[in-house]
Amino acid sequence: MSAEEPLFRIVRGVPTAEELAALVGAVMVRTRPVAAAAPAPVSHWARSARPTAGPRSGPGAWRASGLPR
Predict the structure, then answer these.
(1) What pLDDT does 16 receive?
(2) CA gap 48, 69 in Å, rounded
(3) Which candidate among 3, 35, 59, 62 keeps its CA 20 to 30 Å from the CA of 26?
(4) Annotated region Disordered: where (predicted)?
(5) pLDDT confidence band for 1 (50 / 70 / 90)
(6) Integer distance in angstroms from the first to the last C-alpha of the chain?
(7) Residue 28: its H or E element
């Protein structure tokens, strides 16, 4: 494909400037590589091995200290 060759061509009809801009935008979005995928979810098992902030004070703190996080 040379630099002079168009990326696509309209076969039938006469699109308006807005329709042509929408088409170019849609093609550009579909052909753009994905920048970054969403981070993988962290399992409960892996999360349980991370350090925590420790016990908290306040109402219900004694009871909450015995419950899993």
Answers:
(1) 92
(2) 8
(3) 3
(4) 41-69
(5) low
(6) 59
(7) helix 17-31
